[in-house]
Amino acid sequence: MTANPYEGFFLEPESTRHKHYEIVRARFVEHTPVKDIAKRFGMSFYTVQSRIRDFKAALDSGEAPRFFLELKPGPKSERKKPRVREHVLRLRARRYSDQDIHKALRQAGFVISLALIDQILREEGLRAMTKRTKEEREQIIQEIRSGAIPGLTVPPPVFPQTPAVADVRELNLETGRSLYSRVAGVFLFVPFLAEMRLNEIADASGMIGTKMIPATSYLLSLLALKLLDKERKSHITDWSFDQALGLFAGLNVLPKDSAATDYSYRLTAGQPNELMARWVKNAYPVLCPDSAREFALDFHPIARRGEATALENHYVPQRGKAAPSVQTFFARAVDSPMACYANADIVRKEQCEAPLRFIEYWKDITGVKPDWLYFDSKLTTYPVLTRLHEQGINFITIRRRGVRVVREILARPGNQWSKAVIDTPQRRHQNIRYLDENVRLKGYAGPCRQIAALGLGRQTPTLFLTNNQHVSGRNVITRYIKRNAIENDLGINVNFFHLNCLASEVRLNVNLDVALTIIANGCYRWLSQRLKGCEKMEPKQLYRKFVETGGHLAITDDAIHVKLDRRANNPILAQAQLDKEPIEIPWIQGKRLRFTYG
User: Fold this and answer.
1) Mean pLDDT within 47-66
2) How many Cβ atoms from other residues are within 10 Å of residue 266's Cβ?
3) Is residue 204 part of a domain?
């Protein structure tokens, strides 16, 4: 600091704008170099240079004096408080609480926060308020609802439009009527559903209905949620005003979430299973032109979200522990892309016999038993494997690796092992060694063939069990790899069809959901087979590229014309000619479907 404080005020400025003034003065009056100015004021060369540049720009625009002013950003005065202060004080005088004042002012068009109301009252010393009587509270509530608040002009309340009630008798199919839907692509599934005679399946399965909503319409309404990537029945309200989706189900609009949820709980035992069996019987010849003889089986627990219930505990992989859940059982044909069976009405003591139930189910539908079954070690027990062998059904499963068993296998000499190459596509570990022998298992009648394989990505051998003595060991391993098909299918059921999102402790309710999952899965498999080049496309991709497409619906005397909005993938749909066969739609008064593409 200098000895003279007055001189120091100019040589060592403290405020930012004063420093800017001394910088430009030193540059343009004293002609001091920029490098020396930066050294004098303890700033970088580039900072000083930018301040000089800004001053030149302000001088050229005629705003040089404003360059040296301290500008305070933000509003210069309170904007909302003066406008509402009088209203807040008047309402508090009428013994309105903070919440009541907030509601009344919001109806009058004042968008303010509770914090601002509290601030106004604190400034006036009106924070505390004595307890109000019940009559006073009811009078204030009535004033707010009616808008009759003295001294405060409140516009009449605006109520949201109420959607219509679902009623098949209100379905309007008048010629010339036009509708629009942002998901008009869902009508791509209608030809397949009509070909499968879904209305006859619903009636023959004993699915319940009412005069307002027939069984087929209820079924299609719930199926629409699966086809349109919606997680829960409550999400059906997203489509409450879409009359085109109501037409998809044969109604004026889709039912509300309360009606859809209530329907699930009105079903009795056997109806979802009968529905699924009849659907698979009709869809099997279409989706599996070559007879399906090999099947992958697996369990999938659907965890209960909410309070503790009477459900049994099952291990839930997503949680890494056992939790109250509904155990579901799935079967998928590995040589054809079709989910064939699902059942959620299973308790723990019945789990081990799930493969036997599936065999009876498949024989009733097709008249023949499966040739091969693939499943993991926890699906059933050794006595059930004996019963499978007695019925002449080949199986391949995995044996649990006990320490003693593994030690004995690794101790076997190398000349007893065979080498093989696994040429399954996209396998990282191709060169393997395996030991083929017969073993005795507790609970299994007779010897069982065991193939211990090394080189499949684990340090310990993988133990395959089968009752087939004729195929090679390499063939057993490659066959079991096909079980990955059901793992992929379960992933699709969880991620796209939202199988895990059903929070219910009633197994029959879950059973309907898994049956609808099988039907929706079949619909997407059918669509992928009809679209050239999309045979291996997953449902999520099909939904994004084709189903999630808006369009206009025009009703004529004998048909419903669906004109889909212009999209890049429309030529693929046009090439498929989904409306080539003139199929009448029974639940839409026998009208036919016609597609055009914008």
Assistant:
1) 78
2) 11
3) yes
Q: Clarify whether residues 56 and 86 are in a common domain.
A: no
For 511-556, the pLDDT digits (tens) are 888 899 999 999 999 999 999 999 889 999 999 999 999 999 999 9
What is the residue range of 20's domain?
A: 5-67
Amino acid identity of residue 40, one-letter, is: R
Say if 51 falls within a structural domain.
Answer: yes
CA separation, residue 122 to residues 74, 88, 103, 128, 466 (Å):
24, 12, 19, 9, 82
Domain shared by 172 and 210, yes or no: yes
Last residue of a domain, one of 494, 529, 557: 494
Burial of 137 from C-beta contacts in 10 A (0-12 / 13-18 / 19+): middle
Q: Which two three-digit tokens encode residue 495?
A: 């991620």
Q: Is residue 72 part of a domain?
A: no
Q: Is position 185 within any domain?
A: yes
Report the run of H or E that residue 35 belongs to, with start and end: helix 34-41
Q: How far is CA 93 from the centre of its chain?
A: 51
Residues in Cβ contact with 146 at an 8 Å cutoff, skipping those fewer than 6 apart: none
Residue 294, classed as helix, strand or coil, is strand
pLDDT in tens, 458-486: 888 999 999 999 999 899 998 888 888 78
Count of CA atoms in the C-beta half-sphere (13 A) of 468: 20
